[in-house]
Amino acid sequence: MTSPVGTSRRGMLIGTAALGLAAAVPGALRAAPYDGAAWRRYAERFLLPEGRIVDTGNKGISHSEGQGYGMLLAVAGGDRAAFDRLWGWTQRVLMVRGDGLVAWRWTPDGGVADRNNASDGDMLIAWALLRAAETWQAEAYRTAAAAIVKALAAGVLVEQAGLTVLLPGRDGFRKGETLVLNPSYWIFPAIRAFAALAGGERWGKLSDSGLVLLSKARFGGFQLPPDWMTLDAAGTVGIADGFKKQYGYDAVRVPLYLAMDGYRDPYYFRPFATLATKFGGSAVPATVSLPGGTTTQVAASVGMLAVYRLACKLAGAGDAVTVPPLAPDEDYYSTTLAHLSALAAQSLGIDP
């Protein structure tokens, strides 16, 4: 991924039925238990005793995104002790801004290295707290989640060109009358959960705007969304300056989050399936330049291939992608995508 202020980092979610959320299409999902053993393997690799998730592909840093993913997986794995360690570290170390949002980046040698928030990390944490409140009947988690959701609404939900949109962070994403947005920050099942809270009407509008933007943000021969995009006052979308002009590590999560929320319309998944099948389902490039379409020589990770397999299934392309097993040293981000893709596939009744 790329940080809210442009510093490099690589760029969720849990199957909605597995975590008890309603599907976007009634009856589209079925409940599927998460493999607790899979969570334990994940925790052994990436969860430290103090409660932070380590990004092994990014110099061992920790960030709000990783804490949110870890908290969601801990709930799905039924591990309340681990969840409390994760939430405790997040509160003690990252919640230092004073506005209810979470500082996004922490380094082992310097502590909090960027106090700006990353809105997807805040959303993941709040959603995990809501799931924990439901799973373990603990109202304190729900209260904490509601406070983060309120802070997000106050700080990063804005109106532009008749749409309610999400700033990727509180600071740094207004360029005159143009906003810089990240399509993969639309975590649709989390947004649905927030919309169900008291006063959540704007979150429902945010979900609608996400679908509008995804229909507009289709670039190049594959019609892919960019990792970072712009939206001007007239409603025109573009590929953002100041970031790599590409589809890649961030935007690969777009089909994953749609699947999490129960979407099955092939329209949403066809661009990603087209990319995967073009390269035979196994040699898919990690990034595609936009709008030109030049592909990188770096191959998609195992976790990215898991997302493409899911997208191909939902686009009607069948078993076009073969996903190899995770390597013993598979990094944090790839492993996380693989876990989340498996959960999404299970909840949709699709073989992962």
Automatic annotation (TrEMBL):
PROSITE patterns: GLYCOSYL_HYDROL_F8, TAT. The active site is at 120 (nucleophile). Keywords: Carbohydrate metabolism, Cellulose degradation, Glycosidase, Hydrolase, Polysaccharide degradation, Signal. It catalyses: Endohydrolysis of (1->4)-beta-D-glucosidic linkages in cellulose, lichenin and cereal beta-D-glucans. It is an enzyme of class 3 (hydrolase). Its EC number is 3.2.1.-. It comes from the Bacteria. InterPro entries: 6-hairpin_glycosidase_sf (IPR008928), 6hp_glycosidase-like_sf (IPR012341), Glyco_hydro_8 (IPR002037), Glyco_hydro_8_CS (IPR019834), TAT_signal (IPR006311). Residues 1-31 form the signal peptide. Belongs to the glycosyl hydrolase 8 (cellulase D) family. This is Glucanase. It comes from Azospirillum melinis. The lineage of its organism: Bacteria, Pseudomonadati, Pseudomonadota, Alphaproteobacteria, Rhodospirillales.
